[in-house]
Amino acid sequence: MKAIGYQHNLSINDTHSLQDIELPVPVAQGHDLLVEVKAISVNPADYKIRLNMPAEANQWKVLGWDATGIVKAVGEQVSLFKPGDKVWYAGDLMRQGSNAEQQLVDERIVGRMPNSLSYGEAAALPLTTITAWEMLFDRLKVAKDDSSKSILVIGAAGGVGSIMVQLIKQLTQLQLIATASRPETISWLEDLGADHVINHRNPLSQEFSQFDLNEVDYVVSLNNTEQHLLEIEKVLKPQGQFGLIDDPESLNIVPFKTKSISVHWELMFTRSLFSTSDMQAQHDLLNQVSAMIDQGSIKTTVGEHFGKINAENLRRAHQLLESQKAKGKIVLEDF
Q: How far apart are CA 79 and CA 82, in angstroms?
């Protein structure tokens, strides 16, 4: 089968950083689905792993943690799906990814693809949806029905932010403040329903003062957390909650002590990495969001379509993500 992989951790400007290769088709066992991949999207996790996780000696590492496709075969313990089902999923960090014609994935972290979206439109959503959902409802446990509470989402125009904004507006009564810095990303967030959009290139507390905004109950930082850390403390209420998903080199949270601010990490791969007893929560939430999409209350977050799934187009996608100038998600479709 066709796949795109790497053997060495290289700059994306090197043509060997991602290469077109051929691999054997894997075999489904246990809870595994064998999925014929129809479309994928690309996440910051892809380039971070490409740069930092070595491939096994003389083996190929295949990236990709967002996919839609059709179930081709199932393992002997599978009960949630059958061959022919259309599915969407993010997958497992420790297994071969979705940048391949066929992929194995555990049924418990797979959902039924929305009927109203194309493969490409749907592929933009699984990883970011799981990340946003788990941050809001599993980590922060936000108050869904309290309209007096508020949340700030920093870096909200990217993939995770674009779905998080929609989940907040559809499933909670929170007042939502989002950050962006360019006219097109500000407009994007306004269209998605943000109540206020402020500029994260300026000190957050300064922006709050300028727009007469009060301290918030929750802050979620999606990128550049180190840069904003002191300002986050200023705009959070005493006993507020702070969540992050990025990888700061250091995280000095001592200034949070005075306000008794709690800190919450989110990594959507935790459940699959540790085979937690609640792994199937990802199957359930993907199905719930799929239903919301088919009802018209959530829309895809595709920003750009980069064409067919091949090494050249994937290198372009990695380059754009590394520039931190992407809006929404980058999707590729068919081999």
A: 8
The model's pLDDT over 81-132, given as tens digits with 9 standing for 90+, comes to: 999 999 999 999 999 999 999 999 999 999 999 999 999 999 999 999 999 9
A 10 A CB-CB count for 251 gives 12
160's tokens = 């995770």
CATH 3.90.180.10 segments of the chain:
2-125+278-333
CATH code of domain 128-265: 3.40.50.720
The two tokens of residue 292 are: 């919301």
Secondary structure of 278-316 as H, E, C letters: CCCHHHHHHHHHHHHHHCCCCCCCEEEECCCCCHHHHHH
CATH code of the domain occupying 2-125+278-333: 3.90.180.10
- DSSP H helical ranges for 172-203: 183-192
Question: In sequence order, what are the residues at sequence separation of 6 or more whose Cβ sits closer than 8 angstroms to the Cβ of residue 280?
Answer: 108, 109
Produce one character per residue of 154-184: b if its CB has 16 or more CB atoms within 10 Å, e if not. bbbbbbbbbbbbbbbbebbebbbbbbbeeee
* Confidence grade of residue 68 (pLDDT, cut at 50, 70, 90): very high
pLDDT band at 327 (very low <50, low <70, confident <90, very high): confident
CA 312, CA 280: separation in Å to the nearest integer? 35
- For CATH 3.40.50.720, list the domain ranges present in the chain: 128-265
In terms of phi and psi (left: phi > 0; alpha: psi -120 to 50; beta: otherwise), the region of 242 is beta
pTM confidence score: 0.93
Distance CA 13, CA 254 (A): 39
C-alpha–C-alpha distance, residues 168 and 178, integer Å: 11
Q: What is the pLDDT of residue 93?
A: 92
pLDDT band of residue 176 (cuts 50, 70, 90) is very high
Q: Which residues pair with 40 in a beta bridge?
A: 67, 332
The single-letter code of the amino acid at 320 is L
Q: What angle do CA 113, 123, 165 make, to 5 degrees?
A: 95
Sign of the CA dihedral with 190 first, then 193, 195, and 197 last: negative
Q: Is 142 helix (H, G, I), strand (E, B) or coil?
A: coil
